[in-house]
Amino acid sequence: MGCVAVFAKPPVAGMSKTRLGRVVGHDVAAEMARALLADSVDRWRTTEHRVVLATPEPGADHGLHGAIPAVDQGGGDLGARIERVLRLCLAAHPWAMAVGADAPAVLDDAVDATLSALDAGHTVLGPSDDGGFWVIGLSRCEGGLLDGLPWSAPTTFARTWERLVARGHDPLAVPGAWDVDRADDLPRLAEAGRLAPRSAALARAWLERR
């Protein structure tokens, strides 16, 4: 059994999904963040693997009502935080993967390909539409593996791939996914249906009120 770490901030108005909030309002954006997290957690809880919440505030209300354990991301940039959580998970599991809560509508083939590759011992990296990645999965995570990489950049996936190769990993690209960051993403989210039912319903409601 592997470990899936879902990364998310507490869904607080004005502090989560701020780019989305500038268009839809920060209260709506916080509600969307809560729904995205719940949908993402439910998506991965359908598998046989352990799911944990990786957050900068483990004691905060994330709307999950204790459904999964929370672990502290700790400080540093995103690379340092991903490393820290993955090493924590790897201490008790043969592999661990990190996903963001803002990509809940992962298609079935992407889920299956990711889990199959990790079970077979591969390192995995899944591209997202913005040039980043929606998943990174490892069976080992040496210190500094993700140090100094560009985050939230069009080159994030490519640079991370290069780093994994340089450190002796043999990464396997799994099918891509897309993030929900801006109001422009809401029409696509509204069509997500069973993959992200809570957040898709919120997206449809906002689009109908617009």
CATH superfamily: Spore Coat Polysaccharide Biosynthesis Protein SpsA, Chain A
Order of helices and strands: EHHEEHEHEEHEHH
> What is the radius of gyration computed over CA atoms, rounded to a whole number of angstroms?
16 Å
* Strand arrangement in the largest pleated sheet: 3-2-1-4-6-5-7
Task: Find the count of extended strands (DSSP E, 2+ residues).
Answer: 7
User: Tell me, what is the CATH class?
Assistant: Alpha Beta
Largest sheet: 7 strands, mixed
Classify the secondary structure makeup into a structural class.
alpha/beta
Proportion of residues in β-strands = 15-25%
Q: So what's the overall shape?
A: globular
Describe this structure in words.
This protein has helices at residues 18-24, 26-45, 78-90, 108-119, 156-166, 186-190, 197-209, and strands at 3-7, 50-55, 70-72, 96-100, 123-127, 133-138, 171-173. The chain has a seven-stranded mixed sheet with strand order 3-2-1-4-6-5-7, sandwiched between helices. The protein has one domain (3-209): Spore Coat Polysaccharide Biosynthesis Protein SpsA, Chain A. The model has no long low-confidence stretch (mean pLDDT 95). It starts with a strand and ends with a helix. With 210 residues, the chain is an alpha/beta fold. The longest helix has 20 residues, at 26-45. The protein is globular and about 50 Å long. 39% of the residues lie in helices and 16% in strands. Helix 1 (18-24) crosses helix 2.
